[in-house]
Amino acid sequence: MVKLILATRNEGKLREMRQMLADCPIEVVGLDAYPDVVPAEEDGTTFAENARKKALAVASQTGELALADDSGLCVAALNDRPGVYSARYAGENASDAANNALLLREMAAVADGQRQAAYFCVMALCTPQGECQLFEGRLDGEILRHEVGSGGFGYDPLFRVCGDERSVAQISLEEKNRFSHRARALRQVIEVLKGKFVA
Asked: Could you tell me which residues are beta bridge partners of residue 75?
C-alpha cells in the first residue's frame, strides 16, 4: 500500500485531512511518526512556495510521498493580510486566540458590507525524487464582529461563509470537509493519488 505523509503537526489540519483521505486506499501517516524530520522554514512569500518547501523537506528526509498545505486568511480591507502569516499574525507561536483578537482589533472600524475575506489553500504533493504537483482551493466569506461557535480552529469562529448564517466554527467537521478551501484542494489531490499512485 502506498504511504502518504501529511507534512504538518497541526492537529486541526491532520484531523480534517485524515478524515477526507479515509476512503482512499493509501496509508496516511502524520508527521508525529517522524520526530527526527526537520521541517522546512516557512519563509516563502506565497502559499505555493511554502507548501512546496514543506512537502519537499518531508519527502526528501523520509523517502516517502508527502503532502503539505499552506493556507491562510486573506482579508480585503487589510490588503489581503494576514495571508501567509496567518498562523503567526500576532507573533511567532501566537495562539488562535491571540490571532483572532488582533484581527478583531484591526477590523473594528471596517463597516458591514466591507468585511469580505477568503480562506486560501495550496497543497503540494511531492515525491522523494523532487517531483511536485500543486493544487488550490478557495472559500469566500466575511469577517464577523465577534467570535461565534466553538468548533474548528484558527479563524473559524470569525469567518462566515458566503450564503450561510453560521461561522465555520458552527459547522460540523463532516460538513466542512465537503466545501472548505482545504477540501477543495484535497479533492484534486485524491484524484491524482487514485490515478497515479494507487494500483
From this structure: 81, 117
Alpha-carbon gap, residue 100 to 91, rounded angstroms: 12
Closest CA to 71 of 192, 186, 187, 188: 186
pTM: 0.89
Sign of CA dihedral 64, 189, 153, 74: positive
In the chain, DSSP assigns E strands to: 3-6, 27-30, 65-75, 81-82, 116-126, 132-143, 159-161
Q: What is the pLDDT along the chain (199 residues), one digit of tens a residue?
A: 789 999 988 888 888 888 888 888 888 899 989 999 998 988 999 999 999 999 999 999 999 999 999 999 999 999 999 999 999 999 998 999 999 999 999 999 999 999 999 999 999 999 999 999 999 999 999 999 999 999 989 999 999 999 999 999 999 988 988 899 999 999 999 999 888 876 5
Length of the chain counted residue by residue: 199
Catalytic residues: 70
CA–CA gap between residue 13 and residue 79 (Å, rounded): 26
Q: Does domain 3-197 have CATH number 3.90.950.10?
A: yes
| 119 three-class SS | strand
With a CB cutoff of 8 Å and minimum separation 6, the contacts of 18 are 6, 28, 30
Contacting residues for 82 by C-beta, under 8 A, at least 6 apart: 72, 73, 74, 75, 89, 99, 103
